[in-house]
Amino acid sequence: MADAHAEGSLGDDRHRASILVVDDDPRITTLLMAALSKDGYAVTAVNDSREVVRMDLFSVDLILCDVMMPHLDGFALLTSIRERVSCPIIFLTAKTDEDSAVLAYGLGADDYIRKPFGIAELRAKVRARLSQGSRRGRPLLRFGSLDMDLQARQIRVDGRNANLTDAEYRICALLAEHPGRAYAPMQIWEACLAAEDDPAAEDTDSDATAAVRVHLSNARRKLKALGVDPIRTIWSVGYQWAA
Predict the structure, then answer these.
(1) What does the pLDDT look like over 176-219, one tens digit per residue?
(2) Which residues does this entry mark as bearing 4-aspartylphosphate (predicted)?
(3) CA–CA gap between residue 176 and residue 197 (Å, rounded)
(4) pLDDT of 102-154, one tens digit each?
(5) Beta-bridge partner residues of 240
(6) Could you tell me the pTM of the whole model?
(7) Which domains does the chain have, with CATH numbers?
(8) Which residue of 33, 36, 41, 103 has the fewest C-beta atoms within 10 A of its own C-beta?
(9) How far is residue 102's CA from residue 112's CA, in Å, rounded to a whole number?
(10) Are 173 and 231 within 8 A, CB to CB?
(11) Contact at 8 Å (CB) between 179 and 241?
(12) CB neighbours of 104 closer than 8 A, spacing ≥ 6?
């Protein structure tokens, strides 16, 4: 496995994004590493797709993956790793039939570039995908040993699921996406709970505040059981997520 890390200034939408290139042809990976590193990305290239299955992919921002590879083709690789990654995945392939494109998208690919491709086209697609991810915000947030998966709607601590209810998760997600900002109970209610049909909580300020406190208390209890306590009570104000 080869990797290259380029220095240089980056655009606001890239902030030193990490790209994984997977292709069994070293000439292709060398070409892509040179082009993308020149653009300022941190690039890792893998020529044996089986290595990717064993890799820690948490910090990867985008994957460029060939389809026709020995041992483990691109479609099989995507199937094996898609639940572990939420970054954009772009397939590179010599296949030209529509069925292959449909299969790629059905497996969760974000884009599909046919070989031979122009470097300018590929650079533009990479830039666009990373820019879209930046505007949406990262679907994975990490706070020390705590990981919040905004796509799977789960919080894990050292790999252990906190098993939050949907209401508990929504409140935690609101706070975690804006660490350090204090939210009043009614703000949390309106942002996370007001739309749900909860017979235990009426739309009065006192009942809404009580419901928020109960959900937060339960969430904090579950997180403390896993060894973390990221939610702070700001007296006379509300609650915040400690950065």
Answers:
(1) 988 888 999 999 988 887 754 344 444 456 778 888 888 899 99
(2) 66
(3) 24
(4) 676 667 677 778 888 889 889 988 987 787 654 444 578 888 899 998 877 88
(5) 232
(6) 0.52
(7) 18-135 (3.40.50.2300), 166-241 (1.10.10.10)
(8) 103
(9) 10
(10) no
(11) yes
(12) 67, 74, 75, 78, 91, 93, 112
